[in-house]
Amino acid sequence: MAHPRVYVALILLSLLLIVPALSDSAFIIHVFVTICVFAGLSTAWNIVGGYAGQLSLGHMMFYGIGGYTTALLIQHLGLSPWIGMWAGAALSAVVAVCIGYPCFRLRGPFFSLATIAFLEVIRLLAIHFHGVTGGSAGLIVPLKLGWAWMIFQDKFNYLIIAFGLLLLTLVVSYAIRNARLGYYLTAVREREDAASAAGISPTRVKLKAVVISAVLTSLIGSFHAMYTTFLEPATMFSLSTSIEVAMFALIGGLGTVVGPLLGTVLVVPIAELARGWLGASANGLHGFVYGTVLVLITLTLPGGLVGTYGARVGRWIDRLPGGQPRPEQEAPALRQITGTPGETMLETKNLVMRFGGLTATDDVSMMLKRGEILGIIGPNGAGKTTLFNQISGFLQPSSGSIAIVSGGKATTPASPDAFARAGIGRTFQIVQPFGKLTVIENIMIGAFMRHPDVASARAVALRVSSLVGLQHVREVEARNLPIGDLKRLEVARTLATEPDILLLDEVMAGQSQTDTQTMVALIRAIRDAGVTVIAIEHNMQAIMSLSDRIIVIDSGKVIAQGDPQSVVRDRRVIEAYLGEDFANAQGL
Ligand SMILES: Nc1ncnc2c1ncn2[C@@H]1O[C@H](COP(=O)(O)OP(=O)(O)OP(=O)(O)O)[C@@H](O)[C@H]1O
Predict the structure, then answer these.
(1) What pTM value is reported for the model?
(2) How far lies 528's CA from each of 167, 311, 333, 372, 533, in Å?
(3) Which CATH number fits domain 344-437+483-585: 3.30.1390.20, 3.90.1150.10, 3.40.50.300, 3.40.50.10780?
């Protein structure tokens, strides 16, 4: 509460109550109720559409479910809307899981189309079951006056409830944004694979977001039904309103906490005032107003208002009393890796991976011993990365088995995130940074796996950033880093998950001579701290000096393995990969 961003926001928000209280006009109160309702809907939508990047265009289904459940429970069971709205919210949560689970497998426009389809289905069902819902003719909410029934003569009471719901939605949205879930949603939105490698289950976090969003939307829908006192499928399950709600967030700033509110405050009053002044002749005018503002904003400010000016305004506000940065927390103790050096940690048997007619790994059997650095070499296209993808859960082998051995027990996790949580950390050959997050935030995404609390994850990330030599670019957005730093960031994010086994895929590619030496020293230090390492590398000098053991793969098959000196002398390895020039240069 003492932070200026909080008290300034509360002061500005209170204007939504103070201005209509001073004016005392029923129409002005109506405009402010509408602002609170739509800002709440847009803020709730933004949790899915903005934070999770899933452009739902069927969100009004939860609004409608809330409204109808509340109205029907009053009508048939005489239940107060204060109870009915939670029943509606529970039903919306169930519907959100049932719809979200299959739909989250769809990407981009297909997801949006699927949400529209579900909205239409529910609208048609509401029309079809007219015996219950009143069908197209609509349903009138039983008019019993008083707080218990949420029906008032004094319109200001409606505004108090609408404001309360908006405040609740904003607090939830703010809390998500600043908690692990918010970071996870951003990570999943930007790069699902990298998020999975950091132990995040994309489906689980998206489902969490959609359930929270559905519950909030449904609560607002219940209230709005009580406010309008009339429900019909066309307005309760409206596609155009779903689009408007998304549009407010786009105008204000997608994925920001106050963006949806700002977008609504900007456009709803203009449209409502135009409707108020021009009456029936202004039918459809609000759509024109929204469209015009949207076009202007997307053309001039693609990040929306908050996306463009938010950081600058935030810095001004931080200069107010209480805005000084807090001291950083001490990094928590590192996870103690236990186990006997030399014991088997990972074993693959006869791994085959076919892509159509191509066999990328062909009968690969290998094992990894605790505490070693295992190098994997081989020509381009030999199947090295495909092997990594299988032992980190990103590819399901066509045949063969993978076992992670821990405490004498062998397990095979079912998904990439489960592999990560089982202690296998991996980097990607083609770097996968979360471009719009800073270096520290990128590393925090990894750290969250074992440190759910934001302050601890940040402390771990700060320590890891120093370890890999990224301390000088901590607050730089990852998209602005050169390739050498991006490679180090890959290692840092994976290291922050505190893995037992670290899979490094060509982390020295694109690094300068000095950086390569630093990386070699870093990998040794990581091993000395108890982490077992497998490294795919084309830099022979580096991999020779690092590895305790090397496996050579060619055309998907293991053609040689052993200590570095004997492997580079192997004729098959010289013929398939190293070449005679290398052998001559080494005097082999
Ligand atoms: N998802 C995929 N679908 C189809 N083919 C694939 C897929 N992934 C890899 N391949 C093919 O499998 C073969 C092995 O590729 P892989 O990336 O594992 O090789 P690599 O040894 O890591 O090569 P490099 O050293 O160039 O990274 C290649 O021919 C590649 O084109």
Answers:
(1) 0.90
(2) 51, 42, 17, 10, 10
(3) 3.40.50.300
